[in-house]
Structures are given as structure tokens and as C-alpha cells.
Amino acid sequence: MGLLTDEARAWAQEPFDPYEVTISATDIARYARAIGETDPVFFDTDAARAAGYGDVVAPPYFPYTIRMQAANLRDRSDLEPDGSSSEDVPPVETTRAMAGETKIEMGVPIVAGDTITLEKEIIDLYEKSGRSGDLVFVVQAFTFKNQRMELVMREEFTRIYR
Predict the structure, then answer these.
(1) For residues 63 and 104, is the Cβ–Cβ distance under 8 A?
(2) CATH architecture of the domain with residue range 6-161
(3) Rounded to the nearest 5°, which phi and psi values hold at 108?
């Protein structure tokens, strides 16, 4: 093994800037329609309030759209050939990337008007030998909180490079 260099270890220690976005009822409705939801709480303020929410509520896993905005609203020159954000790719001698394990912890729901802050950090970087050669594992944590600092969602995502 020898893919992990001092440069890669230093890369893993670099902080990421938080990403903040205010969620609109339109954002929620677009996502709900895209995944086939029909429950009025995702589209109608009165229905959402009758169900105990302050405004229209986002379906589960809506925070994933925030993560994708944060990663991909970049200049083309800041993206890898596969569309990944260059800042997310470790400086290692590999040619392929694969998705690995994902763990998700759900918190409070998002409602229209919430301001969500996404914080990203690399929580682990390690190497293993596999059938096809050496592999590098990058474990990232994505933590979403609302303006009241309540946890909305935490995702741990592993990306594997070979």
C-alpha cells in the first residue's frame, strides 16, 4: 500500500466553508413533485399547519438536494470529468471513484422559510488492499442544521478511490 501520501493526509485536514441556503415553499414543492409525493403538507400551507407544521414541510431526504447544490454550483473548471467537485477528490494516484457506505441520522423536518446550514468535514481517510489493488476510503460527514441550530440531518458518506 502506498496511495496515501502526506499531501493526501494534509488535504483531509483542510476545513470546508459552510454552505447556507433559505428554503422556499417552491423548493419543497419541486422536490416533492420530483419524487412523486402527493400529500398536501408538502404543497399547501393550511394543510401543513393543520398537521402541526409552521409551513409546508419538506419530505424526508430533502437535505440531499442542499448537499448537491453546495457541491455542484461551481464553475466547470472546479469540477472533475465525472462532475464531482474538485475539492472533494483527494490528491491520490487513482483513476476511479465509487460510492461506499452511507449512514443517515434524521432530525427535525425542514419547513418553508428555514435557513439551513450545511457543514462538511472529512472524518476518516484510510487505505486498504482489495482484489483490484489498493483502495483509498474517504469518509465525509455532512451535518445540516436549521436557524435554531437543531439537527435536520447528518449523513456519513464513504467514497472509495482505486
Answers:
(1) no
(2) Roll (3.10)
(3) -75, 150
Cell numbers linked to 132: 483490484
Kindly tell me if the per-residue pLDDT of 40 is higher than 90.
yes
**Around 73, how many Cα atoms within 13 Å sit in the side-chain half-sphere?**
9
pLDDT at 132 over 90: no
Pairing of β 133-145 and β 151-161: antiparallel
Grid cell listed for 138: 474517504
Maximum CA extent, the chain = 59
CA distance 122 to 119: 10
CB under 8 A, 24+ apart: contacts of 63-67: 63/110, 63/116, 63/118, 63/142, 63/144, 63/152, 63/153, 63/155, 64/155, 65/27, 65/31, 66/19, 66/21, 66/116, 66/118, 66/144, 67/118, 67/142, 67/144, 67/155
Interatomic CA distance for residues 162 and 97, integer angstroms: 6
Spans of all domains in the chain: 6-161
Q: What is the pLDDT of residues 52-66, one digit of tens each?
A: 999 999 999 999 899
